[in-house]
Amino acid sequence: MSIQAIFLGAPGSGKGTQAKNLVMDLNFNHVSTGDLLRAEVEKATDLGKRVSDIMSRGALVSDEIVLELLKNNCDLSNGAYIFDGFPRTIDQAKALDEVVLKDFPSKAIYFDISLDVLKERLVNRRTCGDCGAIYNLVYKSPKTDGKCDLCDGPLVDRKDDTEEAVGNRLNVFKETIDPILEYYEQKQRLIRVDAGLKPAEILEKVKVALE
Ligand code: AP5
Ligand code: MG
Q1: Which CATH number belongs to the domain containing residue 58 in this structure?
Q2: Is any ligand 1 atom within 6 A of the Cβ of residue 88?
């Protein structure tokens, strides 16, 4: 049975970057609650309108909304998934085990990094508006300014990558992460990876962790 991967880590710790790498290298499915919520906001659905302000401020959306969205967007009979940005609360961690994973084996990878470097990563992030590829004006710039290397799509800022929202997101992270790490540690399912390394080095460590 394939192992399911739960990606935990601060905003900007590289969860999305490594999830996209693993999808390409090892055929994982990728489900990011942040991406799902942003798609709802983009489409201006009722749900999108309800969560738009919350996300722009950098606060957490309610457990009920994200759990429902997650359940509707993953089917474990399709193979191994990466759960990116879920869980964010202890109730979400329990719900992931009880309602989604059930008997499927899983490991939680914690992208461990000093929070001091994350503001710089986030305000310099650009994302392809068409394919979602992730860039960074300092660490991974596109070959042509403003254009995606992979599909030529336009590179855009995320609304919650402003200095103020990033500050709030990092505070929310600090206030919520400890019980989640303890939960997986107690179940002996937690693996810490140094997320301050180069992306290729991190990818190798994540692959080993999931073997
Ligand atoms: P979400 O979309 O999950 O955002 P996040 O957790 O804040 O994380 P990010 O996506 O900002 O960072 P990342 O770790 O993916 O980093 P990335 O790889 O892009 O959530 C957004 C919002 O949605 C939340 O604030 C909340 O409102 C809501 N939400 C989502 N899930 C929820 C849930 N479960 N419950 C409640 N609310 C929820 O990398 C960042 C940058 O760094 C990029 O520019 C990249 O190129 C660069 N980079 C990556 N790796 C490296 C490296 N090794 N070295 C140098 N630069 C690097
Ligand atoms: Mg992300």
Answers
A1: 3.40.50.300
A2: yes
CA 160 to chain CA centroid, Å, is 14
Q: How many whole angstroms separate alpha carbon 64 and alpha carbon 67?
A: 5
125 among known catalytic residues: yes
Q: Which ligand is nearest to the CA of 121?
A: 1
Ligand 1 lined by 127 (C-beta under 6 Å): no
- The 10s digit of each residue's pLDDT in 63-80 is 999 999 999 999 998 899
- pTM beyond 0.90, yes or no: yes
Decide if 158 is catalytic: yes
Assess if residue 150 is contained within a domain: no
Closest ligand to residue 158's CA? 1
Domain count for the chain: 1
* Beta carbons of 20 and 133 less than 8 angstroms apart: yes
Does residue 24 sit within a domain? Answer: yes
